[in-house]
From TrEMBL, chain A:
It is a multi-pass membrane protein. This is Menaquinol:cytochrome c reductase cytochrome b subunit. It comes from Virgibacillus profundi. One of its GO terms (molecular function) is oxidoreductase activity. The keyword Ribosomal protein does not apply.
TrEMBL record, chain B:
The keyword Phosphoprotein does not apply. The keyword Iron applies. This is Menaquinol:cytochrome c reductase iron-sulfur subunit. CDD domains: Rieske. Residues 88-161 form the Rieske domain.
């Protein structure tokens, strides 16, 4: 039945070459942990992406309950945490995943750095990777405020003070992030929410696409 | 047909005009969203009135004392009462000083003689930031600027405080 559906579509739009192009490629022996166990270090990039997918999925479901309003944000999180079946698990995935993704990302970066895999011709992909790192840190920073509890509030307060230290544009940058020159409040929460669920994920998708297209185009770096 | 050499080919002309029109449309689409996003930066800072902190000037000593009061705060669409606090004392010239308790390092709250190890200084417990009694940061500790100073005024023998500003501006 599935085969028939596939054939019916393929007959008309010829999709086989498209997915072959994406999915059919050789994994060199030196990056395959089945050949050399030490090749597990090549897994960290993929693991980072895997956790990112978990973050996206769990985050999508969290927004079914979360409201970015200072009166209700904490209450909505509390409700989803205590009253909603499996809510604790989904928020747990998002909460712990946020830390795990940074760890994986750092391990991936260390592997690329110490193997010198960033060298010509892969400098561009290193730069895209650094931008991805910043986007992930931004996601962590903006997401931290959303539960609107004391820890979130004061962490953001400190984070904004740090942004304010940027030379020349510090004050404007802080206001742009917080939505007010001095208050961390209603406008800060909506802004952080928008940045967390729309702006940064959009940047993340674009950069991830560039990261993956480059790695497929240039191939994985050779053995040490 | 003219004999002159064609300066702009049909293809070039179409490329330029379509890019131009497309650019205008994209710009037109983005103007309002971007202006909306940066609106807080362009807002004139609203100058709040000075508030009565319920402290008679006669009660102010040379020992910095923590003063708490409430102001009505407007945060976009959300209005609320928030508490503010200051360290108030009379300096050696008998002038009233009112320092913001917000540490200039990373925004923690400082206290007068907050540490037994550093008497006669403001102390921030987060990273051992210290300030002398005149609000100046102790060199070698994390803060890089003196404590902010409140706008202050005396009306009918009562102390009124406004906004905290960096020392030298207030």
């Amino acid at each position: 039945m599935l085969q028939k559906i596939y054939d019916w579509i393929d007959d008309r739009v010829d999709i086989t070459p498209i997915w072959r192009d994406i999915a059919d490629h050789e994994v060199p022996e030196h990056v395959n942990p089945a050949h050399h166990f030490s090749a597990f270090v090549y897994c960290f990039g993929g693991l980072t992406f895997f956790v990112v997918v978990i973050q996206i999925l769990s985050g999508m479901f969290l927004t079914m309950y979360y409201v970015p309003d200072i009166e209700n944000a904490w209450r909505s999180v509390y409700y989803l945490q205590t009253e909603v079946a499996h809510g604790q698990i989904v928020r747990g995935m998002h909460h712990w995943g946020a830390s795990v993704v940074i760890v994986m990302l750092l391990l991936h970066t260390l592997r690329v750095f110490f193997q010198g895999a960033y060298k010509k011709p892969r400098e561009l992909n290193w730069m895209v990777g650094v931008l991805l790192f910043f986007v992930m840190l931004g996601l962590g920073f903006t997401g931290y405020l959303l539960p609107w509890d004391n820890k979130a509030y004061f962490a953001t307060q400190v984070g904004l003070e740090i942004a304010e230290q940027v030379p020349f544009i510090g004050v404007q940058l802080k206001t742009l992030l917080a939505g007010d020159a001095s208050i961390v409040g209603a406008q800060t929460l909506t802004r952080f929410f928008a940045i967390h669920v729309f702006f940064l994920p959009a940047a993340l998708f674009g950069l991830l696409a560039a990261h993956f297209i480059l790695i497929r185009r240039q191939g994985i770096s050779g053995p040490l | 047909m003219s004999e002159k050499k064609q300066q702009v080919s049909r293809r070039q002309f179409l490329n330029y005009t379509l890019t131009g029109v497309g650019g205008f449309m994209a710009a037109g689409l983005l103007v309002s969203p971007l202006r909306m996003a940066i609106d807080p930066v362009l807002q004139k800072s609203t100058h709040g009135d000075l508030a009565n902190v319920s402290l008679a000037v006669g009660d102010i000593t040379t020992e910095p004392t923590r003063v708490d009061w409430k102001i009505d705060q407007v945060d976009g669409w959300y209005e609320s009462q928030v508490s503010k606090s200051a360290w108030v004392f009379k300096d050696e010239n008998d002038e009233i000083q009112a320092f913001s308790p917000v540490c200039k390092h990373l925004g923690c709250v400082v206290s007068w003689e907050g540490s037994e190890d550093f008497p006669n200084e403001f102390y921030c417990p987060c990273h051992d930031g210290r300030y002398y009694k005149d609000g100046t940061n102790v060199p070698g500790t994390p803060p890089l600027a003196p404590l902010d100073v409140f706008e202050r005024e005396v009306r009918d023998g009562m102390l009124f405080l406004g906004e905290a500003k960096p020392k030298g501006e207030a």
